[in-house]
Design a protein that fits this description.
Layout: H1 29-51, E1 54-55, E2 66-69, E3 72-75, E4 78-82, E5 85-89, E6 92-98, E7 103-108, E8 110-111, E9 132-142, E10 162-172, H2 191-195, E11 204-206, E12 230-239, E13 245-250, E14 257-265, E15 268-271, E16 287-291, H3 293-297, E17 303-311, E18 316-319, E19 344-348, E20 353-356, E21 361-364, E22 374-375, E23 383-386, E24 389-391, E25 407-412
Antiparallel strand pairs: 1-4, 2-3, 3-8, 4-5, 6-7, 9-10, 11-24, 12-13, 12-25, 13-22, 14-15, 14-19, 15-18, 16-17, 16-19, 17-18, 20-21, 20-23, 23-24
């Protein structure tokens, strides 16, 4: 989600076959990443055209096969294609060598509670009844904050990020009587909402009355008042009790983040690094999010807090209010955090009075009791983020609901 990129230039509507590198030009990340997205889309489209929306190879008949033994559920090793995404279960137990792919794999199925992308507390025991067990698959960006192997020990600087395919086997139910394998999706109450894509869209623009033709880019003649080039990410953090989407944004694509090492006090966090330079740093008054792998893979929001003070020499951050108990998973009785869950603190850039395009106050994030989040106004209402940059959340143009962690990327130049 939050990776250090200059922009996203891929658009499937251009019918691009590949990108061509020209001599003597400055190399940037955008065309390289666009070429990879082109290839990924081509492979996924080819997989769906040849295999269908889902399927597994005949050579691996136990791929994601669900079995029950001793009252526990197990997931068979192998490969499964979901909407062109390749989900792989490498198994557990005795290892063997795959001669085709020249790699080590494992023969035994994985217990349901030991799935590699279900960290944290074990899933709850289901009630008695019949369930629809399904494979949920998606892609996400992984940085050195989640995977230390990205850092070369000889360099100690992150030079790339990884695009990871995540899979989770889940259970939906209990199901009512009469539902079986032949029942269509819309015949299972509540199931269409589980599999529907997000209905959210995000038009963006700079301040002038004439809106840009491309909702993902700010037009060259727009009244963007910033002095730097920015890559924004605008995310749905959570929903208010009345269902209003609560938003957050970052002008640096959310990359100002660091690992939390310990929590010596309820309002103090010791971290790896409070600042890379005068810009990429945490400052008093910043709104931050405390999260970890368990929350991110469960697609649940982190805890928002505001910074009171930053100790650069000591690499510690003091928050205005103590964190709720249980926010961080601690490693034993002491204050050290459990690094298996990769706890992080991330800076977001919303602050002060947030108004709409006409100057009407939406929320004042400096008031006591503020949550640090922006309640989205009515559909199509542009919010003034900063420096002439505006965004309008369209909540359901196609009828589907919004989802937590919906994010949009756009640039300001």
């Amino acid at each position: 989600m939050t990776i250090d990129i200059s922009r996203k230039s891929f658009d499937h509507r251009r019918n691009t076959a590949w990108t061509t590198t020209m001599q003597g030009r400055v190399a940037t990340d955008a065309p390289i990443n666009e070429a990879r997205q082109l290839r990924d889309r081509r492979v996924r489209a080819l997989s769906v055209d040849l295999i269908g929306r889902c399927g597994y190879p005949s050579a691996l008949p136990t791929s994601f096969e669900i079995t029950v033994a001793g009252g526990a559920m197990f997931i068979g090793p192998g490969r499964y294609y979901v909407d062109g995404h390749l989900a792989e279960n490498f198994g557990v137990g005795a290892q063997f060598f795959d001669e085709v792919l020249s790699e080590v794999r494992f023969a035994a199925p994985i217990p349901f509670a030991d799935q590699p992308y279900l960290p944290g507390d074990p899933p709850p025991e289901p009630e008695d009844g019949r369930y629809l067990v399904y494979l949920d698959t998606w892609q996400r960006d992984v940085t050195f904050l989640q995977d230390e192997t990205i850092l070369d020990p000889a360099v100690q600087v992150d030079t790339f990020a990884r695009r990871q395919t995540v899979w989770q086997v889940k259970a939906f139910g209990p199901l009512p009587d009469g539902v079986d394998c032949e029942t269509p999706d819309d015949g299972i109450a509540g199931w269409p909402a589980v599999i529907a894509p997000s209905g959210g869209r995000l038009p963006t623009r700079a301040a002038p009355a004439q809106a840009p033709l491309d909702p993902c880019l700010l037009p060259p003649g727009a009244e963007y008042r910033g002095i730097d080039n920015r890559t924004y990410i605008y995310c749905l953090h959570d929903f208010a009790q009345d269902g209003t989407p609560l938003m957050k944004f970052s002008r640096s694509h959310g990359v100002i983040a660091t690992t939390i090492l310990s929590q010596p006090q309820a309002d103090v966090l010791d971290v790896v690094e409070v600042a890379k330079d005068d810009f990429l740093r945490f400052n008093p008054g910043d709104w931050v999010e405390i999260t970890d792998e368990a929350r991110m893979l469960a697609e649940t929001p982190g805890v928002m807090a505001r910074v009171l003070a930053v100790d650069d020499p000591g690499n510690s951050i003091t928050l205005e209010d103590p964190l709720p108990a249980g926010t961080l998973r601690l490693d034993g009785p002491g204050p050290d955090t459990d690094q298996a869950f990769h706890p992080i603190i991330r800076r977001w850039d919303q602050s002060g009075q947030i108004v709409d395009h006409d100057g009407n106050l939406i929320v004042d994030l400096d008031l006591p009791g503020a949550t640090g989040l922006i309640p989205a106004p009515a559909d199509g209402t542009f919010i003034a983020l900063e420096d002439g940059v505006e965004a309008a959340l369209d909540t359901a143009p196609t009828g589907e609901a919004l989802r937590i962690n919906d994010c949009w990327t756009f640039i300001a130049r």
